[in-house]
Amino acid sequence: MYNDKKVVFSGVQPSGNLTIGNYLGAIRNFSAFSDEYHCYYCVVDMHAITVRQNPAELRRRTYETLALYMACGLDPDKNTLFIQSHVPQHAELGWILDCYTMFGELSRMTQFKDKSAKNADNINAGLFTYPALMAADILLYQTELVPVGIDQKQHLELARDIANRFNQVYGETFVVPEGYIPREGAKICSLQDPTKKMSKSDTNENAVVRILDTKDDIIRKFKRAVTDSDNRIIFAEDKPGISNLLTIYSCMTGKTIEEAQAQFNGMGYGDFKIAVGETVADGLAPVREEFARLMADKAYLEQIMKQGAEEAYRNARRTMSKVRRKIGFTEIKH
Ligand code: TYM
Fold first, then answer.
1. Which ligand 1 atom is at minimum distance from the Cα of 130?
2. What is the pLDDT of residue 226?
């Protein structure tokens, strides 16, 4: 909206080592938008502190997530890559949008219910209002499109409701964003409980394949993946384990599920799991190598952070000044 290009925004929390769910459902799809859109890809460290984080680990993971963005193909000169807490307008708009978000709406968020069950000793207000901050992230940049996995759909719908509500009260202020949820890979499931999504904070390491796991670890985890009792390699509702493996294979290779089924037809589960593991490990090898190269140059990462924050700040300021005016906040001249 602020230049002729439409805007894409997405974010990843630096709250754990990223998984192939984050990769296939979100990050690896990001670079496809870089030519046509002005893309903002943010490391949302402010979201991460809704769950208690170790400060040194949070700092390390913030660098790592930025490096992973780049290792997954995001060119910092073609995308605005930045850290959420470096652009104070996120907190500012987050507070304002809190005042346009209803208690009932936030109470219905399934992620809040899940996370408060998991963190019963720390059900803080930030965990509750998290979706309003996420709406602020998106609306600050007049975003048209938000590429995310399916687990973020409910938050995205709330962001749309908040934008519409605000626009109705004050006149057109925010672009109302659309989600972009990939057809394949929007919900990669746990290898140990394939009825649940793969989550970076899972404490069972065998359930989660991390982008930076070694080849041996990746293959070992796939070998242990839960399947079922018969021996057919088909995509079916009553075969969540096999369906999940077929999905992962199809996302990694670009083959359709039907092609993958045909290829593995007649193979035993043991060999099938090894084949998927090898495909994933080999497919991620270039990402791992590029990641290691980038992490060795902290000064370069810091330069990218700075460049991204400055660019994001410039555009965030424009939305904020509009919002302040509409709401009736007074202004002083600097
Ligand atoms: P986060 O950090 O949990 O996940 C980052 C992205 O990865 C996707 N994802 C998955 N996709 C497929 N299968 C899975 N198992 C899987 N697990 C995670 C997520 O859908 C997401 O796209 N609230 C967001 C971060 C956020 C954000 C935003 C996203 C904050 N502000 C604004 C978009 C726009 C989150 O917790 O993502």
1. 23
2. 96
| Helical spans, DSSP H, in 108-152 | 110-118, 125-139
Nearest ligand 1 atom to the CA of 13 is 2
Which of 87, 152, 174, 188 has the most ligand 1 atoms within 8 A of CB, as the residue to mutate? 152
Domain boundaries, the chain: 6-181+298-327, 205-292
The whole-angstrom separation of Cα 12 and Cα 331 is: 34
Which sequence positions are flagged as catalytic? 115, 197, 200
Query: Could you tell me which of 194, 206, 159 has the C-alpha nearest to residue 179?
Result: 159
pLDDT given at position 3: 62
Residue 323: how many other CB atoms lie within 10 Å: 22
CATH 3.40.30.10 fits 6-181+298-327, yes or no: no
Residue 275: name the closest of 301, 252, 306, 297 by CA: 252
Q: Which residue has the tokens 């070694």?
A: 214
Residue 17 CA to residue 283 CA, distance in Å, equals 18
Q: Are 45 and 60 in contact (CB under 8 A)?
A: no
pLDDT score recorded for residue 228: 84
Residue 230 is predicted with a pLDDT of 85
- Ligand 1 site, CB within 6 A: 9-13, 21-22, 25-26, 44, 47, 134, 137-138, 146, 148-149, 151-152, 155, 186-188, 197-198
The model's pLDDT over 141-187, given as tens digits with 9 standing for 90+, comes to 999 999 999 999 999 999 999 999 999 999 999 999 999 999 999 99
pLDDT of residue 1: 46
| Residues of the chain predicted below pLDDT 70 | 1-3
The CATH superfamily label for domain 205-292 reads Tyrosyl-Transfer RNA Synthetase (1.10.240.10)
